[in-house]
Each structure stands twice: as structure tokens, then as C-alpha cells.
Write a structure and sequence with these properties.
This protein has 15 helices and ten strands. The chain is α+β, with helices and mostly antiparallel strands. Strands 3, 4, 5, 6, 7, 8, 9 and 10 form an eight-stranded mixed β-sheet that branches. A hairpin with a 2-residue loop joins β4 and β5. The protein is globular.
Length: 580
Amino acid sequence: MTTPLLERRDVDFLLHTWLKAETLADRETVDAILDLSETLATEQFLPHFKRNDVEEPRLENGEVRICPAIGDALAQYAELGLFSAGFSEAEGGLALPYLVCAASFAFFAAANVATAAYPMLTVANARLIATFGDAAQFETFARPQIEGRWFGTMCLSEPQAGSSLADVRTKALPDGRDPLGDRYRLVGNKMWISGGDQDVSENIVHLVLAKTPLEDGSLPEGTAGISLFIVPKILLDGARNDVTVAGLNHKMGYRGTANCLLNFGERGGATGWMVGAPGQGLRQMFQMMNKARIGVGLGAAALGYRGYQLSVAYARERLQGRLVGQRSGPPVAIIEHPDVRRMLLQQKSYVEGALALCLYCARLVDTAERADDAALLGLLTPIAKTWPSEYGLAANDIAIQIHGGYGYTRDFDVEQLWRDNRLNPIHEGTTGIQAIDLVGRKILQDGSGLPVLGRRIEATVQAAGAVPDLDGHAAALSAAWRSMTDAIETLRAGEGRSAFDNATPFLWAFGHVVVAWLWLDQAVAAAMLGQSSAADRDLVDGKLRACRYFFECELPKAGLLLTFVASRSDVASGASTRIF
């Protein structure tokens, strides 16, 4: 029997009991989408999980070939309308809320994240064009992606620039105007392009960041001169655009996702059309990147979650040893050993907490027209990307430990899940970059999300204080938030760059406090659910026990980190480069 990808009753609890998804879509529709997603992921994505890892993309005569099963699975994904699910009916979609789309995607990421990466990028690409492009660009380039016939990419990084987008050197030379807008010829190189080429879609739409030259021919410095361009692999007349695959990056994980070095303009310039106004490229791309960051976090949570599911199944089946003090008798299932249960509980607290965080942020996307929700979403986005990436990976590490020697063999899935998830702390901005974003943009520059978060934490504290066995957690969360606000005042009092010296430890602490809040909020909902005679007692008890574990074993780590941040230590920033 196949181990479930995710615990469906947990997903239902998160969407219906906790996040009240019925205020966004009727339950019948939500459940039908989840049923469809779980079935398709299990029957079409999961079977080539291992094959994806072995049959890596290959470059043949300038064309990238990928595992054929990817194309078969994504054809089914398109036929069932899942590319279009989150778009309005006018755009050819099902008008589903992002919360439901995110929950749907989690099943596919858990089954086969390398295959799921293609629709994730495609949907984000089409969404950006729908938001910032004109009607002709939407009909020409976005609609075929919404239909699942064309796939999309985002082309930001360059070999010499990495994540420093101010240093991109790809240039766009004016080439007239046509019904699709201002046309340009692009020349440059783009690195780490997921889905940069493949042979399963009819076309590929690249969204490319580039700079238009100044009057003297030089490129503007910084990010202000960056614009966004639509560059298709195949032009509308059927001719091949001037986009060349210069090489493939062979990764430790996500091996089924073709990752390319692309050269634009080897034969004079790749044809592209500007999206919106000049110089707005980075602002436009950030819309795509922010949803992609939530998507990366969601994928990381799903990978960790599947590792946890496999750990539980293995721990129930694997007979080994006897309980301490027993010298005879048959061996017991390893789940009977307290240390194995400790590891399972640690995994559970990580993966269910990570999934809750991502779905909570997805819920905020749906209500972002409200100022408070938009502010809180902005504050939590770097957490939604980073915390699941770090702790979903930790859950995968524990999965290998629970499997023992079998865990690091290729016969079991947990080692591949770890390799796949190891990429996510780097995808869409490393942990360090997210920490700088959190401290700089979200706290020191803006800060509008902090009072919203404080009020919501206080509401949860008040609700939990009235629930037996949760009042102690409520007090602990309240104290942790006070320590957090004290540390933030220390950051604000810092001079110049010193506020960023310990940004990553601050991010770790902030993430733990946020996840503790979400665990306590879930626990309140579970306790209320438990009052019903029809309640699933195992679900309720599991939520309450995992919450207790997080507060007893994880939340105290935040206090140590915040003490370190508040000390303004220069142990790292003051270190001479000569000592390394």
C-alpha cells in the first residue's frame, strides 16, 4: 500500500477548521480539487519520482531532452485544468482562491517536486504577464500558459552576478514597435534557469531582466535601469528565437527540472517585448518572486511532510530491539522506542508547522486587498520561504536517521527527498538574503506588518489562555514576543550596517516565534474541535501533543538567539578575513 503523500485529515483541518476556506470557496469545490490533486499526484507524478532522479535532462544537438514521463504527467495536469485553476474565468481559469491552489500544489510537490516545478514557474509567469502586460501580450503569451500548452521561466541571475541583480549585464537594444508592444533585441547570458529548455511543451516563454543602454551606450548602474522582457523560445512565425542553451547544470536534487545556462543573442539578438514601462522590471518581477518564495517554502514543507509520512510507516513496520529493561521476547516495532517517538514528534512539529505557515500566507494572498493582511503578508514572506526550507530539510534529515542504514540507500525514497529539499534554502534567495530582506525592508524601512502580527499573536494568547493545558503556552508565547520586540528595538538603535550583522540568527528566532504562534492557534482550534463527540481524537491529540513539543523543545531556542542578537555581538562581522 502506498504511503499517503500528505495526511489528508491534517490538510482538511488546516483549510476548513482553522483557515475557514469556506469563506473563499464552497467546501464541495475545495474537497473535489483536493481529491483530484491527491489522486493525480499519486497516479501520475509519484510513479516517476525515482526515474526523474536517474534520467537527468540531457543536451542533444542544442535541444534539452527530459524524462518523457514528465510530459505525460503535465499533459494530465493541463487537461484537468490545474494550470488555470487560480486564474479568473475571464482569463480562462476556474477562479479558485490561492489558498486552495496552494493546498493542491502541496500534493504534487510531495509526490515529485522536480516535475511540479514546471507548472509552478509557468503559472507565476502567466500571472505576471496578466498583471503587467497589455491585452495583446496576455492573449499571445499568457493564455497558452494558462492552458498548459506553453511553459514559462524567470530569467534573473547571470554567471557573474548571482543574486546581485544590480549587476546584471544583459542588454536590450530597441528594435521598433509592433502589435505586441515595444520590441527589443536582447544580448547576454542567464544562469540557473529552471525549465530553461525542455521538449514537452509547445513553446517556452522566458521573462528576462535586462537593461537598456544609456545614450552613450553604457548600461545604467544599480537596479533602477532594469526592465522586464517577454522572450519566447519560438517566435510567432514559427522561427526559432536567438536563445541558445549553452549548458546544463547537474544538481544534487530536483534532477528532473532542466536547469540551464542560456545565451541570448549569439546571432545578433533575441527578440523580446517590454512588459510595462521602462525601469519597472524588478518591481514587476518581485510579484512573481514573492509568490515563488511562498511556493518554494510550500514545496519544502511538502518534501519534509512526505519524509515524515514515510518515517511513520517505516517505524510502525520495522521490528528491531526490545524496550529498555526487556531481555527477552520478540523484537518490537521501532516506534515503541521513546527516542524514535521523539524524532517523529520533532518531524511532525516541523512539517505540520511549515505547512500551516505556508497555507496561512496563501490565505493572506487571497485577502491582500485588506491593508493589515497585505502588511502581514509582506512581513511573513521571507519566513514562509526560509523556515520551511530549513526545517523541512531538517525533517528529511531525521527521516534518514529513523530509517537507519536503509535511509541513506537509494532503495528508499528518504535520501532523494533530502537531496531535493537541500536546494530550497538556496532557491529564490538564500537564507541570508531573506534575513536582510526581513531586517531591512520589512522591519527597519517599513515595519507596518509588526503591529498587525503583534495584535494577532495577542488574540491567540487570549484565546489559548482560556483553554486548559494551553494557558502555559500562551504565557510562553507572550514572553517570546516581548523578547522579540526588545530585540527589534536593539536593531533599530544600531548604527549603519551593524543592524544586519546578526540578521540570520534574528530570522531564525523570528521564524520560531511565528511558527509557535501558528501552532498555538491550531491548538486552540483543535481543542474546540475536540469538544465534539464526532471529533477525530487522534487528529486532536496529535495537534495538541505537537504544539506542546514545539513549545517545550523548540520555542526556547528563539530566546537564546534573541539574547545573542540583543548583545550586538560582532563575533562574525568583526572577524578578520585573514583567519579563514
